[in-house]
Write a structure and sequence with these properties.
Chain A: Belongs to the binding-protein-dependent transport system permease family. The complex is a heterodimer of chains A (286) and B (267). Chain A is mainly alpha-helical. Chain A contains 13 helices and no strands. The two termini of chain A are 31 Å apart. Chain B has a single domain, classed as MetI-like fold, CATH 1.10.3720.10. The longest helix of chain B has 32 residues.
C-alpha cells in the first residue's frame, strides 16, 4: 500500500503537496497579504515619508467614525440575526414536499447568483418612497403622495440595507442548512421521536444542536459581508452617518491627501473586525 | 389551520419576497416614463433594449469587458486552484490548517479592507486603471473558491487509479489527461463557472483597481441609475442576471445545495 501511494504522488512529479500549493499561496500572499501589509503601512505613513500615529489618533478620536462603526455593527448584527432565523425557518419549511416547494428551492438558487448591486437597486426601487410598494399602497388608497410613505431606504435605521442582506442571505443560509439536513437524514429526529419526544422537542433538542456548527459558520460569513460591503450601503444608506466601508472610501477618494492614511486606518479597522470573526468561526468548527 | 396549508402559505410568502425586488428592475427594462403613482408602466416598449444596443451605448462595451475579465479571472483561478485543491484534498501534511486559513481569509475579509492596500501594490507594478489589474485582483475572491471546490472534489477522488495507469506504462501527462481530468471534469466545470460568476458580480475591487476606467456591468448599472436612466439600468440588471441563470441550468445536475451555497454568487 505504501508503495502505491508513493507512485500516486510521483505521477504529478511532485513528491510534496507544497509544490502544488505554492502558486496559489504566492498569489494570495502577494495580493491579499500584500494588500493588508501595505494598508497597514499606509495607515502609519506621513506625507514627508516618515511614520506617525496621526491617522489612527484622528480616526479613533472622531465621533463620526464611532457612529459609522456602530451603524455597520447594527447592520451586520441585524442582518445576520434575521437571515439566520428566517433561513432556518425556510430550510425547515423546504425540507418537506408541498406544492410550490420546487419553485421556492429554484428561486433560492437563482437568488444566490444575483450580484449584490442588482439586488440593492431592486430593493431601492421596491422600497423607496416612490417605489413599487409605495405605489401599491397608493393604489389601494393608503397614501396620496410619496412623502406619506415611511422612509424605508436611506433611513435612520438602515432598513433598506438590512432588507437587502436578508433577501440575499436567507437563501444562502437556507441552502447550507438544507444540505446539512440532507446529510444528517431523518434518523436522529426519528430516534428521538421513538424515545417519546414530540416533533417540536425533537427538532429543538436534536436537530438544532446538530445544525448549529453550520449555522454559526454561515452566520459569520453573512456578518462579515454585511459589515464590510460597500455597494449596498452606498446605494441604500443615508449619507450621515455612513456605513464604515462607505466612510473609508470617502476618505480614500478625498482630494485631501492627508485623508489617505485615515482611509487605510479605517480599512484596517474593517479587516480587524473580520479577522476576529474568522477566529470565532474557526473555533466553532472544532 | 393545518400544517399543510401553513406550509403552502409560508412558501407563497417566501416566493413573493424572493421575486419582489426583481419586479421593478424587469418592468423598468420594458417601460417608458413610469412614474408615481402608476403601479405598472403606462407604455410598454422594447425601446430600452434597442437603445442599450444602439451604436453609442456603453452597454455592449461593458458587457464585453465584464465577460473578458470574468473569463480570464476564472481561467487563472482554475490554473492555480486545481493543483492547490489536489494538494488539500489528497494529502495530510503539517501546516495544512494554516494553509486552509490563509485561503479562507480572503473569502471573509471584505474587499475594501484589502482593496485599498492592493491599490498601493498595483500602483507600484503599474497595474492600476487597467483590465489586467482588475483580472488579477478578482483572483482574491475567485481563487479561494476554486481551491475549496476542488479540494472537495479531490477528497472523493481515487488516486489509486493513477498508480494503476502508471504501472500499466502510462506517462505522467497521459495519466493527467486520461485518468485525472475525466474524473474531476464535472467539479472543474462547477468551480470554473462559479468563479466566473463571482468575478462577474464584483464591484468595489473593480472600482478600486480599475479606477473607473474599467467599466463593468455593476459599475455601469449604478452610473445609469444615478443618472436617472432607469430604463437602461433595468436592461443592465436583466443582463447581469443572465449568466447566473445559464450557469444554474448547465450545472443543475452537478450541484448540491452545499456546493452552490458555498459560491454565494456575489461574494
Amino acid at each position: 500500500m505504501a508503495g502505491s501511494r508513493t507512485s500516486a504522488t510521483e505521477v504529478l512529479g511532485r513528491g510534496h503537496p507544497w509544490l502544488s500549493l505554492a502558486p496559489a499561496l504566492c498569489v494570495i500572499a502577494v495580493l491579499f497579504g500584500g494588500g493588508l501589509v501595505l494598508g497597514l503601512a499606509g495607515s502609519f505613513a506621513e506625507r514627508g515619508g516618515g511614520w506617525s500615529l496621526d491617522a489612527w489618533a484622528q480616526v479613533l478620536s472622531e465621533g463620526r467614525v464611532w457612529r459609522s462603526l456602530g451603524l455597520s455593527l447594527w447592520i451586520a448584527g441585524a442582518s445576520t440575526a434575521l437571515s439566520c432565523g428566517i433561513g432556518l425557518g425556510a430550510a425547515l419549511l423546504l425540507r418537506r414536499s408541498f406544492p410550490g416547494q420546487g419553485l421556492a428551492r429554484l428561486l433560492f438558487q437563482i437568488n444566490l447568483t444575483i450580484p449584490h448591486a442588482v439586488g440593492a437597486l431592486g430593493i431601492l426601487w421596491l422600497l423607496s418612497q416612490s417605489g413599487f410598494l409605495a405605489r401599491l399602497v397608493a393604489g389601494a388608497g393608503g397614501i396620496d403622495t410619496p412623502a406619506d410613505f415611511p422612509p424605508l431606504t436611506q433611513d435612520r435605521f438602515a432598513i433598506g440595507i438590512i432588507a437587502h442582506y436578508v433577501w440575499k442571505e436567507v437563501p444562502f443560509v437556507g441552502l447550507i442548512l438544507l444540505a446539512n439536513m440532507q446529510s444528517l437524514g431523518d434518523d436522529p429526529e426519528s430516534a428521538a421521536r421513538t424515545l417519546g419526544a414530540g416533533p417540536f422537542a425533537a427538532m429543538r433538542l436534536v436537530l438544532l444542536p446538530l445544525l448549529m456548527p453550520a449555522l454559526v459558520r454561515a452566520g459569520a460569513i453573512v456578518f462579515a459581508f454585511a459589515f464590510g460591503a460597500w455597494e449596498v450601503p452606498v446605494l441604500l444608506g443615508q449619507s450621515s452617518p455612513a456605513a464604515l466601508p462607505v466612510l473609508a472610501w470617502q476618505r480614500f477618494t478625498s482630494p485631501d491627501l492627508a485623508a489617505r492614511p485615515e482611509a487605510m486606518a479605517l480599512a484596517m479597522l474593517i479587516a480587524l473586525v473580520s479577522a476576529l470573526l474568522i477566529r470565532a468561526a474557526f473555533t466553532a468548527r472544532r | 389551520m393545518n400544517m399543510g396549508l401553513l406550509r403552502v402559505v409560508a412558501g407563497l410568502v417566501l416566493v413573493c419576497c424572493l421575486v419582489a425586488p426583481l419586479l421593478p428592475l424587469g418592468l423598468w427594462s420594458v417601460a417608458r416614463g413610469w412614474f408615481f403613482p402608476q403601479v405598472l408602466p403606462a407604455t410598454w416598449t422594447l425601446e430600452p433594449w434597442a437603445r442599450a444596443f444602439a451604436p453609442r451605448s456603453e452597454i455592449p462595451g461593458a458587457l464585453l469587458t465584464t465577460t473578458t475579465v470574468a473569463l480570464a479571472s476564472a481561467g487563472l483561478a482554475l490554473a492555480l486552484g486545481i493543483p492547490a485543491g489536489r494538494a488539500l484534498g489528497l494529502y495530510k501534511f503539517r501546516g495544512k490548517a494554516l494553509v486552509e486559513l490563509a485561503l479562507l481569509a480572503p473569502v471573509i475579509v471584505p474587499g475594501i479592507a484589502v482593496g485599498l492596500g492592493i491599490h498601493g501594490v498595483f500602483l507600484r507594478l503599474g497595474l492600476t486603471n487597467s483590465m489586467a489589474g482588475v483580472i488579477l485582483v478578482h483572483l482574491v475572491p475567485t481563487l479561494p473558491y476554486v481551491v475549496f471546490v476542488m479540494s472537495g472534489v479531490f477528497a472523493n477522488y481515487d488516486a489509486e487509479a493513477e498508480a494503476q495507469a502508471r504501472s500499466l506504462g502510462a506517462r505522467p501527462m497521459q495519466v493527467l489527461w486520461h485518468v485525472m481530468l475525466p474524473a474531476i471534469a464535472p467539479g472543474v466545470m462547477v468551480a470554473g463557472l462559479f468563479a466566473f460568476l463571482v468575478s462577474w458580480s464584483q464591484y468595489i475591487l473593480t472600482l478600486t483597481i480599475g479606477g473607473g476606467r474599467v467599466v463593468t456591468l455593476p459599475l455601469l448599472l449604478y452610473a445609469q441609475a444615478g443618472a436617472g436612466r432607469n430604463d437602461q439600468a433595468g436592461v443592465l440588471a436583466m443582463l447581469s442576471l443572465a449568466p447566473g441563470l445559464v450557469i444554474l441550468a448547465l450545472t443543475a445536475r452537478q450541484l448540491t445545495g452545499r456546493g452552490l451555497a458555498l459560491g454565494g454568487g456575489a461574494r
